[in-house]
Amino acid sequence: MSVLSIMIFLPIITAFILFITKININVVKVIYMIVTFIIMYLAIDLYMNFDPNNSMQFVEYHPWIAEYGIAYHIGVDGVSLGIVMMNAIIMPLIAIALYKQRDKHGYWINLLFVQGGIMGAVLSLDLMLFYLFWEVMLLPIFFMIGLFGYNKNHFFAMKFNIYTIFGSLMMLIAILYIAVQYKEQFGKYSFDLYDLKNTILSTTESLLVFSGFMVAFAIKIPIFPFHTWLSDTYRSTPIGAVIVMSSLMAKLGAYAIWRFLFTLLHETSRDLSPYFIGIGLFGLIYFGISAMSQIHLKRMFAFSSASHLSLIVVGFFIYDVYGLVGSSYLIVAHAISSAALFLMVGMMYERTKTHYIDSLGGIATVAPRFALFFVFFALSIVGVPLTAGFVAEVLIVLGAFEYNIYVGFLTATTILIAMLFMFKMISQVVYGEVGVAVENFEDLRLHELVALVPLALLVLAMGIFPNYFIKKIEPTAISYTMGKGVANHE
Amino acid sequence: MSNQFIALVVPALLLFSAIFILLFGLSSYYTKNRGYYITLATLMITFFISADSVNELHSIEILPKYFNSMIVYDTFSATFISLFLLGGFLTLAIAKSFIDKTNFFTHEAFVLFLFSIFGMVMLTMSNELLTAFISLEIASMSVYILVGLNRDSLKASEAFFKYLLLGSFAASFYLLGMMLIYAQAKSTNLDVIAEYILTTDIHSQFLIIAGGMLIMITIMFKIAAVPFGAWVLDVYEGASLPITAYMAGVFKIAVFAFALRMFLHDYISFELIYDPLIIFGAIVTMVIGSLLAVIQSSIKKMLAASSVVHSGYILIAFASMGGATSNAASAIIFYLFAYFISAIGAFGVLSYISKGGEKLINYDDLNGLAKDRPIIAASLTIFLLSLAGFPSTIGFIAKFYIFTSAIEAGFTTLAFFGALSASISIYYYFKVIMHMYFKESSHVEIHYGYKVSLAFIIISAIIVLWGGIGTSLLLDIPGINALNDLSKFSIESLGL
Q1: Of A74, A355, B18, B158, which has fewest CB within 10 angstroms of its CB?
Q2: What is the distance in angstroms between the Cα of B217 and the nearest Cα belonging to chain A?
Q3: What's residue B358's pLDDT?
Q4: Which of B397, B423, B437 is the closest to A162 by Cβ?
């Protein structure tokens, strides 16, 4: 058992044990914290031991279904490391920030379960294994929406579920198709990523396989035409699950484009990249404008993170080393900031019992510390200098300018649009007249500060010393670019 | 134990017990419990006897001197026989509380139950069309009566009558088909027919082709594929829950087993002629089955309709048999095993909850089950996830095999349709989960069935999970690989 396996299975097994034993909710919370802190410790340890000069590391390989060459094959590289770290850091902080609010066993059990599922999906290097975790992590989210969600949550849980599983099944067919082609060319089955990338597909075939994968990823992220589940689901979802969805699962979709599509079908991805840059840019602006017109805080943040996810997709598809590094960096940066913001939305809801922007207002006068953190994280999403978002967005915009001046220009508008919707929201929620709901607003409590300060420090550190973090990502990006005609500025 | 001995002793024991209960039932010492336990013990003993021989590759004709090679005992039949016996055992074991609470499980019920299993055992062993027909009719007749067991219920009588009429009508096609085949090949023995097919010009075999199609009609009827499956909703609804579980989980498998043997033995060379029909059947079955399942309001009928969809998935693999013979055939066996255990589990939970009540179980009746009985709700969730083909359950691995074999045979579109109907099935299976977990319970505390039944439900749920993730790496218990080897063995043994 390597450290990666422990990180995958410890939460899942704990969740299972907690499910079958009936113990006091406080004990459950303590166990949740212990387990997630162990994972966090392991992840930090992993980060320290991660060799920045290598790409794939800590590889573990066991055959699983021998007949079809399916194996338990996991490993971590510079891009997945970011999501692993986020998964490990955000999960315990959710508990610290929200431990008073949620007194249901299922809430914490499902969160543990989803942590293991996401960890597994990020680390898998075998397509079937990836598919397994990709589907399994959906289940706890379904239960969380249905059990602890808000208005019409049953309907939206179902909608989200059918929508995403439909995408996954299309991906399944694509995976099977490529594996069968591999078998015909090499004489045996394999679902290993590194085997399958040798498969030769005709143009039509690779287009179809590409779209099979892309439907699944596009729904999860979501990019433009597949976003219709997004805003209502976010509104109905309890805050812990929203954090997981926006800062981990959506990022996982973007990551999967890079990990699977760019590896397996790199020529097709390259040929199609102009379309996806176009869709991404359109989505970026469209979601930004949608975010501006929202009156519900969670829906507004749903569109805001969709807008930034489109930026990540653009960053991947411009096929430039800056874009790759920038997108990987933005995955982490946006995960931290959006997790923090959603945590604060959760705290706000606990105090005011409302998510509507117009009934809030003037928090700065009542709760200055809360306002400080809220504005700080909002600005880091916008990409204000000295925050992590800035570094990432500058890298992506640089890459986009290398690609094409118009694309570069349009990509740069993201900062402008993000500023518009964020400042509009901030001015209504944090400043202005004190709303009715806000009158007895309590400032940040100690445990909430404990959860938010590390995130804030991380955002600052990533903004001020980006080199320390980028050097872990860069070798992966460069090793990927070798021989694939990706612009490399060495 | 020699294989010959096993092949003789299993049906003999079943028959002996059946006749014993038939006589014992008339004596004053008979109680329902005694009949029940005798049946259960017979099934368990025969299961252990027959499971002994599934791990090796073997194929022998039983007493060829007397039976004129009508009966073969190979790994294929050994696997399926073990499956039926296990299925019968699980059905009865889970239904204990149901049987206790109802008054129509007289001693005849157990007799018929054993007879039907005897018929199915003979069906998988028969290597000859006439023997197969007789065994099929023994099994069917017993099941007809089991459907109508509850004489006080109008629905059950209606189901019985409907099933009897349509079933007998469908069986006549089999006879006609058999006659046509005999007219050309001059034999009803599968081996002889196979030889004839191989040695004769394929364009002059019209009677054999036509006969095969007629037999296919009967098989399609029995597995409730769409153009011939109109009976399925009413019959499954009318039958009492354990019997429905038995029909969906066990009886259907027996028919598939015979179809598989006949197809692989004889008709594989006509794949090109039959493929369009089977493909059409598969797509129509999946589409209409899905639609039917979506609109049901009772869970029992929903599961009945979804069993139609599962027949459609299996037909996909039948269609792929030409391009990827061994993979498709073993995919079918694996799928049958997966469906068997999940369906028995799902129906079993329903019978456990209903405790013999006449009332149909609607979605709303399950509201709040997760709060009252978390273990039951979790088990039902696992069964439903497996039926829906959700990863980490055995149902997913089974679908994976089916779709892979379809793509391997070049039917990617068919696999796509399969995936599409799987995504529709998410709706109706998750609807049950939604009602169990998300809705507030409306009923007062219910006292559910026995602990024994519960234990078997849990065991089935664990098998379902282990079949989805199991590997001998973790524990030394046969997992996916072993099951896969088993189905490969069964297919290989047919060629011996």
Answers
A1: B158
A2: 30
A3: 60
A4: B423
Token code pair at residue A64: 């699983």
Three-state DSSP at A149 gives coil
Q: Identify the CA nearest to A314 among candidates A255, A379, A396, A220.
A: A396
| Chain A CA closest to residue B432 | A158
Q: Which residue among B404, B426, B469 places its CB closest to the CB of A165?
A: B426
Task: Return the amino acid letter for A412.
Answer: A
Are B412 and A136 within 8 A, CB to CB? no
Which region among B123-132, B194-203, B400-409 has the lowest average model confidence (pLDDT)? Answer: B194-203
Least reliable range by pLDDT among A77-81, A133-137, B310-314: A77-81
Alpha carbons A459 and A398: distance in angstroms, whole number: 21
Separation of CA B52 from chain center: 21
**Of the ranges A109-118, A336-345, B316-325, B471-480, which one carries the lowest mean pLDDT score?**
B471-480
Contacts of A158 in chain B (CB under 8 A): 427, 430-431, 434
**Measuring CA to CA, how many Å separate B33 from each of A147, A273, B101, B123, B391?**
42, 70, 12, 30, 40
Q: What is the ipTM of this complex?
A: 0.91
Quote the Cα angle for B317-B322-B323, to 5°: 85
Over 80: is that where the pLDDT of B325 sits?
A: no
Tokens 């043997």 belong to: B261
For chain A, the domains span 265-490
| Contact (Cβ atoms closer than 8 angstroms) between residue A413 and residue A338 | no
Q: How confident is the model at residue A41 (pLDDT cuts 50, 70, 90)?
A: very high
Question: What confidence category does residue B368 fall into, taking pLDDT thresholds of 50, 70 and 90?
Answer: confident
Reduced to 3 states, what is the DSSP secondary structure of residue B485?
A: helix
Does the CB of A23 have a partner CB in chain B at under 8 Å? no
